[in-house]
Amino acid sequence: MLKVVDIFYSIQGEGAHVGVPSIFIRLYGCNLTCSFCDEFLHKGEYESLSFDEVLTRIKPYPAMNVIITGGEPSIYNLNGFIDYLQAYMYAVSVETNGYNFSNIASANWVTYSPKDWDKIEKYGYDEIKFVVSKESAVEKILEFSSYKPIFIQPQNEMDRPNKENVAFCVEFVKEHPQFILSVQLHKFLGVE
């Protein structure tokens, strides 16, 4: 059984797959309590759903891309669920803070957003995303290098962009072109 907070259909607003129509499955729970978290639903009510019940809910949507998000999905061993969705030809992405990469190893794509910049993992993901504000200690991420895409994402408000952080991140990426800007397009477009 999965602790599901929400299932919805939208576009991916972040990272390498920005703009891709996707089905989002938001799971309950997180191992962290970040002050800048823009998603509080993972702390509220949830439904316990079987794999079949989740499949029944996502089948009406035309997309074949599923994004498992939270909270923090890797607090659960999701490999069986990911394998199940892949058997129905879904491509499965997971958004994680890196709590336990082995719990999501079956995913087609993993987006890693570390919250502790003093301990950044090197393996287990396909892209990395740093959430940055104008007050962030960016010297810590300047020391990080990878052959995988490294995104800088402005720390935004819950429901809209933070223009000062966006401007800071645009200038930061221009000064350090090893990074790629990811702006949370869905917040600019006003979609879920």
Q: Can you identify the CATH class?
A: Alpha Beta
CATH superfamily: Aldolase class I
Helicity, as a percent range: 10-25%
Tell me what portion of residues adopts beta-strand conformation: 25-35%
Count of helical segments? Answer: 5
Pathway: Purine metabolism; 7-cyano-7-deazaguanine biosynthesis
Keywords: 4Fe-4S, Iron, Iron-sulfur, Lyase, Magnesium, Metal-binding, Queuosine biosynthesis, S-adenosyl-L-methionine
Protein name: 7-carboxy-7-deazaguanine synthase
InterPro entries: 7-CO-7-deazaguanine_synth-like, Aldolase_TIM, rSAM, rSAM_sf
Provide a descriptive summary of the structure in words:
With 192 residues, this protein is α/β, with parallel strands linked by helices. It has one domain (2-189): Aldolase class I (TIM Barrel), CATH 3.20.20. The protein has helices at 51-58, 79-87, 139-142, 163-175, 185-189, and strands spanning 2-11, 21-27, 47-49, 65-69, 91-96, 109-112, 127-132, 150-154, 180-181. Strands 3-1-2-4-5-6-7-8-9 form a nine-stranded mixed β-sheet. The protein starts with a strand and ends with a helix. 33% of the residues are buried. The mean pLDDT is 92.
Could you give the topology of this structure?
Blueprint: E1 2-11, E2 21-27, E3 47-49, H1 51-58, E4 65-69, H2 79-87, E5 91-96, E6 109-112, E7 127-132, H3 139-142, E8 150-154, H4 163-175, E9 180-181, H5 185-189
Parallel strand pairs: 2-4, 4-5, 5-6, 6-7, 7-8, 8-9
Antiparallel strand pairs: 1-2, 1-3
Family: Belongs to the radical SAM superfamily. 7-carboxy-7-deazaguanine synthase family.
Catalytic activity: 6-carboxy-5,6,7,8-tetrahydropterin + H(+) = 7-carboxy-7-carbaguanine + NH4(+)
Binding site for [4Fe-4S] cluster: 30, 34, 37
